[in-house]
Amino acid sequence: MTTGAKRLLVFGAAGRTGRALVDLAAAAGFTVTACGRTGGTETELPAGAERASADVLAPAEIRAVLAAARPDMVVSTIGGRMDLRIDDEGVRNIADACLATGVTRLIAVTSLGCGGSAQYASERLMAAIGEVLAAKTRAEAHITGLPLGWTIVRPAGLLDEPATGRGALFDDERVHGRIACRDLAALLLRLCDDDASVGRILSAVDEATLNGPDDPVRYQPATA
To answer: Which of 13, 70, 79, 197 has the fewest CB atoms below 10 angstroms from its CB?
Structure first.
């Protein structure tokens, strides 16, 4: 993969998926801005990455970070069970700020159980986090209505475990299972260089945990 000096801004960089993406992207040669509400991350950043801070419920702060970082692409991994506004308003604010500042590429992480995939989710899941999924669904609906080069990634249940290398993307909302945050981050990095994913809503699952139809539709990235 040839990345040159592409500039990537990660919102939610203090979280497990966001921090893993920062590390992987910096190692791949991206210039990375790691943004979190308290400065991006509490631990030392890798070479090629710098910190930024923004409250995603404050649009002016998001626009200021975007103006300073001048990213070629933005990835949002934010989420907040304790404040549903993060999953809805926060994500919408990031998308709107991208549009306002001329950033044309946005990858947003939501969850399986959002949108059309809700009909395939278990009753237990919907009972546990149905309000969170509804908030994320509202954010998805907003993003898909904007003139941006967007991709939405719906991961399966997230695990704070070592990467397995089995993370896979599916163009299929019927699938479910689990996936390590680090494997999800690797998939997100791959999408940063994949224009064929623009305008797509993809599911991310560890193949060893894959459940669903016997004939899941795998996402086929663009070939060089």
So the answer is: 70
